Amino acid sequence: MKDQIRYASFTPQQGKAELSALVACYQDVFADEPWNEWKKCAVCGKKWGNSHKADLMKIDFCHCGQSVDEFWPAEVVREDIMHEVTEKTSCWLAWKQDLVVGFCWGYPITPDALEEKLKLSGFASSVTREFGHDCRIGYQDEIGVRGEYRGHGIAKKMFSYRLEDFRRMGLNVGVVRTKTNPPSVTNLWFMDLGYRVICEYNDLDGRVILARSLESL
Ligand SMILES: [Zn+2]
Questions:
Q1: Distance 121 CA to ligand 1 centre (A)
Q2: What residues does the ion ligand 1 have nearby, CB within 5 Å?
Q3: Cα 149 to middle of ligand 1, angstroms
Q4: What's the pLDDT tens digit per position in 106-151?
Q5: H helices of 41-137, where?
Q6: How far is the CA of 11 from the centre of ligand 1 (A)?
Q7: Scanning 35, 128, 133, 200, which has its CA 20 to 30 A from the CA of 3?
Q8: Model pTM?
Q9: Contacts of 22 (CB under 8 A, 6+ apart)
Q10: Cα of 72 to ligand 1 centre, how many Å?
Q11: For residue 3, pLDDT beyond 80
């Protein structure tokens, strides 16, 4: 499996086919466990993953009196990617032939701009208290691998390519948002790498911001 995977950096300007392949991968990853963001009811907000297809068939893909929607419509995902993946972004895709099986991106951002993006007051002061006022953040925005390709080190490989890019850009602090209630796989993985909680949302999912110096990683 590993030998058949090709890694390539990506910008949306590369071409429509590549962008569509990434959008399809993004939709598939989030439709799967643990996110279950495949379909949603626009009225009550209930969501279903692709493992709940049989349940949806029983209700004829209708809830609260209307057809359920895509959780992540392709045009919304495409716009998000165009917005997040710019020339400043480090973005890597894992390809198996013409199928994108994994994606990973992140970018440099100031503490204040990241506080605004994360909608988490107190983040900027926490991160500068911990890493100094001249810290240069690489925000580790997204990482995902299709369910059937997990467990082969693909995420780790893309993470290491992104880390190399961050170092080349002169970034010295890695920041990532994860869930702790229950702890997500990414949360446990980053804690193992020595990332620590620097700011918390105190919400039901236990969302936290983790950070770590990139220098000794
Ligand atoms: Zn509903």
A1: 32
A2: 41, 43-44, 46, 63-64
A3: 32
A4: 999 999 999 999 999 999 999 999 999 999 999 999 999 999 999 9
A5: 53-58, 74-84, 111-118, 123-131
A6: 37
A7: 35
A8: 0.91
A9: 10, 81, 93, 100, 103
A10: 17
A11: no
